Amino acid sequence: MAVETTAPARGRKKEILFFVLPNLFTTANMFFGFYSVVSAIRGEWDTAAFAIFVSALADGLDGRVARLTKAQSSFGEQYDSMADLMSFGMAPAMLFYLWALQPYGRWGWVAAFVFLLCAALRLTRFNVLKQTVEKRYFQGLPSPLAGTGIASAVLFYRELGREFGVVGVKEPFMLVIVLTMALTMISTIRYRSFKDLKFKSQKTFAWILLIASALVVFSPKPELTFFPIAALYIIGAPVGELVRFVWRRLFRGKIWVRFRKKN
Fold it and tell me: Can you list the domains of the chain with their CATH numbers?
């Protein structure tokens, strides 16, 4: 009789554990986002930037843990969006403003707010359209990538200053970065999600991804490695869209037809 009563209880505890576990990673995501804000207020720029990277790691794990334990829920999805807004909206915006944008006065905090606003709009659009958007692509730059892009830019510039004495271009450099990140988040530019990646059929890309990861992990100065890789991904998508547009216009449009008729 004791076994009959304890078995359902154990099953219930297991269900609660599976529900709580992914949300613990989401809470860690939010915690490090808040810690980044606190560090930025203290003027601890490197710590604030690295905290955003830790948030991104926790954000990447919560969904995988939820799928692994079959504990996906609407509550978890909404909670994840709130945590992302803190870690990849508020934290990068505060880091930018306090570190580089204050000399612009009103326009500085307006630019930081625009980044936060675009992150909120990007997360909202993702929640609304996630069932209809093609899974191979993100519509617009995902907010975690925008947030880590901001953090990597801060680390990149600060490391250049320490190593090579690069000074004097921080404010305009960061203003361009923050506005670029903001606009790409709310754009309709397609960014590869790599969710359909098959290593056997895409060996070339797999090797490229592996080499890029090795450069980050084993680089003696990872602060100088994060940002160039992030910049290639962020810039590569709009460049690809432009190339596809020109290709369709020239080789599938009237210009190409006229050219073939003349020759």
Answer: 2-262 (1.20.120.1760)
